[in-house]
Amino acid sequence: MRRLIAVSAFLLLAGPAWAEMPFYVGSGTFTTSLTTCQAPFNVPTQVNDIALLVAESENETISLSSAQGFVQVTNSPQGAGTAATNPANAIAVYWKRIDLVGGGTAPTVADSGNHTTCQIHIFRGVKLTGDPWNITAGGNDGGSNDTTAVIPGATTTASNCLVAIIEGTSFNGTSTVQCGAATNADLANITERSDNTHTVGLGGGHCLITGEKASAGAYTDTTLTLANTSFKGAMSIALEGAVNTGVWVRSAAGNPGYSLRTNTTLVAPAGIENDNILLLFFVIAAQTSAPTPTPPSGFTVLTGFPNDISDGLGFNVDYYAWRKIASGESGDYTITHTSATTDAFMYVLAGADTTTPINPNPTLNEGTTGTTTTALGLTTAIDNSLVIFATHNWDEYNDTASPPTGTTPTFTERLNSTGILYLADGLLATAGATGNKSHENQNTSQGCDAEGECPWFGSLVAVAASSGAPPPAPPRMTILGVGP
């Protein structure tokens, strides 16, 4: 007799992947022109940020004469009113995924006719490949010249979308309060980010508002009341969140410059959330003995730090690394110290273990001569840990250093400035040994002491990935077979 045999099987789940809500970083200068318009990248950017360039005209054709990698967003442009006649308005939106720290060369908007305004807006945590949006929508409010603004909604197919709401305006006046409070019951944390109009030519401008759509689905039209009557082109762009595995750099900022000061203040990096790991690197230097600094509240020093090194003439540099688990953060961060030469940089890390975020302990290494800095290797215990290569030299980097080579991990440069700090980082997907990591430190005889000493310091810091909340029980599959 043949019997049916039931065999239970379980689906194996991959390690935790994290989908984050994108966030707004900042806006560059609102720029006006009677000819071509070039909006500057004067907002701190990092690789894989998304830049949205919004250009506005008197409902005349908008194009880029020097794109610099920017391409037009779906459903752009939008406009209303008679071209080159007051009032009229058109907006065009272009995007670029940043591939160079600092943003690169700014794009140029061609002369549209009467006037052109332009501005770059920066977003972070957006998906890493393909178009950055999940969906877009555009309209012109029925071609009406009034104070009632309606920005079209759409339906997202992914969770964690940040909706960029862009409202053009034909108002011929200089104002930063043209757009009133926006309303949309389907979006959370609605916030105006930029609001600018100008009298250049026949005048105009645009506003940028953001709102969060945590769950996939429809978001209705956004409405607001303008301070002055206007024709208006409008768009909504649902920027889709990146799916990250392991620890990722949510944001980073710093480099106040290697110079003499009493106390060092870092502007808070954008997008800090509770349970992010804040990692602060700091050098302080003085003749004979560097003063002891006090970190911002809640920060604790990493094992092995500070590193203390001096040259043959007694000039002393101490290198600190502190960490904090973010909780209700607000305002900037000040390191308190007496007069000394300092430099600083802060990481904001997501997806990290909040119980033992630094695992294993950092490695520290130093030398007094040579143009190569070597950080001693370490062995990670957890897959998808972030490894940070942190160094300082004696002669300032002047933007000329490069990250270590190799694939354990592959490093991305994070800070390469005119100061003495250098930072790079990479995700080590499979736990294991990194090996020693080195780079040319740019020390030269010009920066050495009279005895030819050019001290350097190198460290590897590993930030362990969180295992995440316990996953739900895997689905059971019953496989029916035929027995003897």
What is the topology?
Elements (H helix, E strand, L loop, with lengths): L3 E7 L6 E3 L3 E5 L3 E3 L3 E2 L11 E8 L6 E3 L4 E2 L5 E3 L8 E9 L10 E2 L6 E9 L8 E7 L6 E6 L2 E3 L4 E9 L18 E11 L5 E10 L3 E3 L2 E9 L3 E7 L2 E3 L2 E7 L4 E3 L2 E3 L10 E11 L12 E2 L5 E4 L4 E11 L7 E3 L4 E11 L12 E5 L4 E4 L9 E8 L19 E5 L4 E8 L8 E4 L15 E8 L12 E7 L2
Describe this structure in words.
The protein is an all-beta fold. It folds into two domains: 17-243, no CATH class; 246-463, no CATH class. The chain is built from no helices and 39 strands. The strands form eleven sheets. Strands 3, 4, 6, 8, 9, 10 and 12 form a seven-stranded antiparallel β-sheet that branches. Strands 23, 24, 26, 27, 28, 29 and 31 form a seven-stranded antiparallel β-sheet that branches. The radius of gyration is 26 Å and the shape is elongated.
The termini sit apart by 7 Å
What is the strand tally?
A: 39
Number of individual domains? 2
Provide the gyration radius in Å. Answer: 26 Å
Strand proportion, as a percent range, falls in over 45%
Q: Give the number of helices.
A: 0
Computed structural class:
mainly beta
User: In this structure, how is the largest beta sheet organized?
Assistant: 7 strands, antiparallel
User: What would you call the shape?
Assistant: elongated
Spans of 5+ residues with little confidence (pLDDT < 50)?
1-15, 469-484
Mean pLDDT: 89
What proportion of the residues is helical, as a percent range?
under 10%
